[in-house]
Design a protein that fits this description.
By secondary structure, the chain is mostly helical. About 85% of the residues lie in helices and about 0% in strands.
């Protein structure tokens, strides 16, 4: 029968325990390092999204202000007072003929800054965000809410693209007066107002433009609400 020296048993048992502990500690330190690295990446992603929220807020503020001005101008041209357009009210909004022409026949794009979001999606860095609520709001903001505004802009674009030839053919005086320096702003407004008053098709087109403006503003405000929800959730994590 082989006798096993107790001293060797203790020695090898100790070495085995040391090896196991060493592996466990190494594994734990590695996991800790990965967790710290992931936390760093998570904060980087959230701060990047926070910066983009500020950029989008500035953009949407300008869009809303511009679209609201467009709507005010269109209301003044359509809602006559005693059958007459209130020229002074329009002049308080703008004194430029080009400004009126722009909202009448040129569509305005909706292109908020989204490069950071797309970069996070394409790089796979979205995995660092733990909050399902943040992921859900991100999807709602950049997919659902954005598509509502974008779709309305596309409909407006199609309307105005078909509308411009109609004005050129049936109301060339509106197009020509825009660049005619001998035609004052008040006279230009009177020309447009007279054309709208005497042509139901022209008025109907402007009524549709007004509807799309209202739709755009409604969907833009929903988009802004999603943006505010996202900022609130990110702040809860960062703070």
């Amino acid at each position: 029968m082989i006798k096993i020296n107790k001293k060797y048993i203790i020695k090898y048992s100790f070495e085995f325990v040391v090896i196991v502990l060493g592996i466990s500690v190494s594994f734990w330190l590695n996991e800790l390092s990965i967790d710290n690295q992931n936390e760093g990446e998570r904060m980087k992603v959230l701060n990047s999204l926070k910066m983009e929220i500020n950029e989008i807020r500035d953009y949407t503020y300008e869009r809303e202000k511009t679209w609201m001005t467009d709507l005010r101008l269109l209301n003044e041209l359509l809602l006559l007072r005693d059958g007459v357009v209130d020229t002074d009210s329009i002049l308080k909004i703008t004194t430029a003929k080009s400004r009126i022409e722009t909202f009448l026949v040129i569509y305005r794009v909706f292109d908020p800054p989204m490069n950071r979001y797309y970069s996070i999606i394409n790089s796979g860095d979205l995995k660092f965000i733990k909050s399902n609520k943040i992921k859900e709001i991100l999807s709602r903001l950049h997919n659902t809410s954005f598509s509502y505004v974008e779709t309305t802009v596309e409909y407006e674009k199609q309307l105005k693209q078909s509308f411009l030839p109609f004005i050129s053919q049936n109301h060339p005086e509106i197009i020509l007066a825009r660049d005619d320096s001998s035609v004052s702003m008040k006279e230009y407004i009177a020309i447009i107002s007279k054309s709208i008053k005497n042509d139901k098709k022209l008025k109907a087109n402007f009524v549709m433009v007004k509807r799309y403006l209202n739709y755009k503003l409604s969907f833009l405000r929903l988009y802004i609400l999603s943006l505010e929800d996202l900022e609130r959730e990110i702040d809860l994590v960062l703070n």
